[in-house]
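Sync notes, pocket subgroup
Present: LS, DG
LS reminded everyone that the earlier model was apo-only. Rerun requested with magnesium ion included. Inputs:
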Amino acid sequence: MPRIKQKKTDPTNGVKESGFSNRLRSVLWKIPGLTVWRQNSGKMMVRDEETGIKRRFDGAPKGAADITGILAPEGIRVEIEANGKRGKMRPEQIQWAVRIQNAGGLYLYAPMFKDRHANESVSYWKMALEDLIAQRRKGVE
Ligand SMILES: [Mg+2]
């Protein structure tokens, strides 16, 4: 009897943290008044594509969220930490979340759900951010 190989199914469709973060960022652009961009944190070596010269890149402080932005018309800073399926908030990320919130910004921790297609996680966290914005505007949050 030939053994039937059990096909491993990945509900997230193999989407990794960076893919999830990119999808989420592009969807968040649809929220009226919100401008978002990618935020790299920490120090790293980068090579200039045109000159080939290597240089040190000093990114945002350690723990800063993957996605950052600004909400119009209030000018509220918005930070979203996108995490892969096995992701967990690191202590420096928690400190950053507190810092942003204490400064009056909005912070959202958005981990990918391991039992759902990545797009479902994206839709869920977009709604969560819309809710957070609505609460802030109502003066609840
Ligand atoms: Mg992350």
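DG: The CA atoms of residues 23 and 119 lie 8 Å apart.
LS: The helical segments are 17-28, 91-102, 118-138.
Action: DG to write up.
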